[in-house]
Amino acid sequence: MFGNNVITPSRMLSYTSALSRWSSIKPIRGRSPETRPLARRSNDNLTIRQDPTTGDIIVRLYRTDIITYKNEPDTDPDLRPIELEPYSSVTTNLIIHSILAPHVFTQWADRHHSTPDHITGVNGRYYNTPSYALIQPQETGWTLVGGEKPFEVPRINRKEAKQALRDTNFYTFQTWLNTLIRLDLAPMSAHYRRSPYGWSPSEAYRYLTAGEDGWREIAGRMSGRVALDREMTSLRQAVYKYYQCYDTETIPYFTSYREMQNALNQMRRLD
């Protein structure tokens, strides 16, 4: 999609600079004078236009308006808000970065699950922006002023988690399996997998509580080519899901990218 079809444009950090860029581009003959090419003149994959009614300056990628510089006459042109549309594509993120960096960072993806995938970073803070992001340029540092929803991050309740593992005989199964491994009698499969077996909560509960017959079924689905601790973590997480051993922490934004990624990974494990 990116390739030679779209060239990333240079920075436009205010309504003033966006209006100046739009004014400097010669319209294409036979097309609307309000819409002008922002990249190659040979195609209109990436355009910039001025809304004749509102005066807004709008950057459009294919069929989506991804950046709108709001024309608010009562506001300093250099401090007028900028609205972003969270369209999920690598190209969109590259263009946003090219135009609004270093003040704005976007990580908009579409992984088809409920975990937040439209992340907007502004001045070192990372927000969940599922529908839009309204950015306010400021002399003292840009801020997000609209579109954010808090992150609802599940945190394991350690007391409930330990009780769930005891109730399902997880610890007993773990001892049983380690004993068979030491005796070279473990019924692990020879299946070649690069990741642990994906247990559903109901399967994990049913086999763990079924005694040795169920335990052999579990071990038989584990691959001898995957690290045992990873297989056990997958089984343990399924038990946590079955018993809902989680509390929810509401976080308005993250100030660390690594902390945000760790939280998102925790949320995805529960999708």
Question: Can you tell me about this structure?
Answer:
The chain is α+β, with helices and mostly antiparallel strands and 271 residues long. It folds into two domains: 15-149, no CATH class; 158-243, no CATH class. Helices cover 34% and strands 21% of the residues. It has eight helices and twelve strands. The chain has helices spanning 15-24, 90-100, 158-167, 170-182, 201-208, 212-221, 228-243, 257-269; strands at 35-37, 46-50, 57-61, 64-69, 82-84, 104-108, 118-122, 125-128, 133-136, 143-146, 151-156, 246-251. It has a seven-stranded antiparallel sheet, covered by helices on one side. Strand 2 and strand 3 (57-61) form a beta hairpin. The model has no long low-confidence stretch (mean pLDDT 90).
